[in-house]
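Lab channel / #folding
Pinned by the channel admin:
"Please post every new chain as: sequence first, then the structure tokens as a reply. Keep commentary short and put observations after the output so the thread stays searchable."

First post following the new format, from NK:
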Amino acid sequence: MNQQVNVVKVDGDQLRIEDVVSIARNATHIQLTEEALNRVRASRAMVEKMVSQQEVVYGITTGFGKFSDVMIHDEDVSKLQENLIMSHACGMGDPYAVEVVRAMMALRINALAKGYSGIREETLLQLVELCNRGVHPIIPQQGSLGASGDLAPLAHMVLVMLGKGEALVNGKRLSGKEALSKVGLSPIRLEAKEGLALINGTQAMTAQLCLALYDSRVLLESAELIAAMTIEALRGIPKAFDPQLHLVRPHPGQQESAKRLLQHLSGSKRTTAQGELRVQDPYSLRCLPQVHGATRDTLEYVWTTVTRECNSVTDNPILFTETGDVISGGNFHGQPMAFAADFLAIAIAELANISERRTERLVNPQLSGLPGFLTENGGLHSGFMITQYVAASIVSENKVLCHPASVDSIPSSANQEDHVSMGTTSARKLRTIVSNVTKVLAIEYLAAAQAIDFGSGDLGTGTARAYEQLRRVIPRLHEDREMHPDLVKAEELIQQGTLAFVTE
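Reply from TO:
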């Protein structure tokens, strides 16, 4: 019995970030629409006409970059494309994770499906089949300047289509030729324009942004629920989340975060009124809507920007079949993605900054009114003392990583390409920051649950379920034990989206 496979129909115009994530992580297949294939065929016919008429067109009958003024003879047009791939496949460093590679492939397929790049139908279908049959090229992470596209990473992707390079198939590292043979495919030969069409684009940086964005949205929702648990543990004041307050400073993200915090705390007997214990909470509790809301608004901006890029033509030159124009420009320049990645890095790192401050309030008896470091027998036991150290070290690491890569540029190609985006570096750093934020939130999650165990009274609608989910896999800390396994389990709960959807 054949197992049913999920399919995303790709037409070049409607690919969502959720689709990219599904292809990257769930082995969802790609199916090109007939409309997209018709556009691809029309674009290819335009390339073949230009070659037959010996027109001077960048990257088709000329060299690349500084060699754009060098004419290529007819008999060498195909060899030019193969040489392009081999020479540009010079990345360094550890390979990208399979999920990033699959996202890159999906995004490049969608860009080519728009029909502005002149690739042959059979070449595009080869890339589709690689993705669908689980052939994942080994792509080194270092080497892209993020302008002229992600040339080196995408060249490594294309090598496997030619039977060169290396790929993972079912977790086994094989030569490109062996990988193709393993799944019943044969190497292809690139024709005019095709090598350039395959590697001129922002897909390495955009792939990482798609995954980081999706994970960041999960982190934001998780952070608010964990923060609500901390509010209860510290007997905080939810009046600070009153809609009246946020209507007079009407940032959408702030209003939404305040609304969600009240939902999570609905029915709680652990919170207090203004003046009952204190008049005001510290900023890390009271200003949650303002801080998280700013992150929420940033997420929305970046989500819109990246979705737009997912469905953009980032090739050069671009072929317009309706007018017959071939225009050399700079749509491959990664500046929009570079800014988006750096902006999101700052916004998502702030979730960890404020989380670590809440963890400090939970473990510090001078601030919490709870047993020191949340242990019943302090002195003999250290409890959560060092978990706060860990959170502090991670947020400090993030502060270094948040330095924007997009403010840097360095000339290349003999100064022909004299301004670059460094967007791929921005995206790589962003993924590390997202992982770090998850760890810091996991620490607060554990500490908040432990602190709740020292109190009494009903928890809120959302916080009760979050607490119960944690306690199903991690028991209360009565005496010192290895904390690392507990932290990893809490981290996995967050990564799985368990908390993000607990109140849906």
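NK: The longest strand covers residues 7-10.
TO: also worth noting, The chain has two domains: 7-201, 208-313+342-495.
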